[in-house]
# Entry
Amino acid sequence: MKQIILLLLTLVIVFYGCSTKSSESSKISSVASHTSSTDETGGHDGYFSESSYPVDESWRSEISYTYMKYVGTKEHKVFSQNYGNEVRNGLKSYDNYFVEFLKYFNLTSDEFLTVVEIENKQMVENGKPVYYNEAGVKDILKTLYGDESIVLKEPIDMLLKQSGSYGKVFGDTDITDAKNIENLLYYSIPLKLQAYVGIRQLNQWATGLEKHEDYNIINFVKHFNIPADEFDRAFEEMNYNTHMNNVTDGETILLTQGAYDFIRQELYGSTKTLSEVSLPDAVYQQSSEESSLPWNTPEEKSAYYAASEAQMAQSHTSSYVSSTATSH
# Structure
């Protein structure tokens, strides 16, 4: 009887050992497969998938809105105007516009590839051809950085600190998760001002703050010396967007005349009445059918606005390039 029990125990141990080795082997194989895919292209080969669309390299003479918001719309405007003058004087060509932009703002390969990933991923998810083609990206990498390998070593934080129509509280907390904080707007940077200064500059400023509470609109505006007219435009835009989003999806309205008065008075020594918001009639004419809106979920709504914003920015840049080239 003891021999039978020992035999059974031996068989169980052998079976368990083989099963464990098989499981570990499977895990190693899985990790190796993932590592191989990542090593080959930095994990971003999916954003250059085969497409039936013809190769379009129009991005070489355009600057996307993601880049504009990262370096700052204020500084981008200066670059764009100066470059346009040089084109008109025959000193430069728009064929090198994108490369010159990267060089002017001293953008790293990681910054370049982060935008490639963000925008190509968005296009793929929307069922459209990628914006940046693989051959063109490799050419840029080799020309500017000496290595055509498409490997994103460290993704860069290049997007707006956004929570609905507002900037994130302290730059890292969604509005809905900051219910215990008084005067949320005070610790939130309006999206338009983030874009005006540039996310790169915003990140550098935020990194140097001593306390979490130092991340506030007063310190931000004073540090970057933002003019009153830019400040007002940012709050007018926020005023419109929050009312529109309140009607469409019930977003809480944080911007009041009192909150605006408090902030503007401290910054500029005076205040003004926020413009009356005139919303399109269609926004009010909601029915029970979700099909009346071009989105069905908050995620789809965000993607819809992002795509529209990118399209508007691309159209604006293309028009500028075309008009400048024509005048030249």
Remarks:
- The chain has a mean pLDDT of 75.
- Residues 162-283 form one domain.
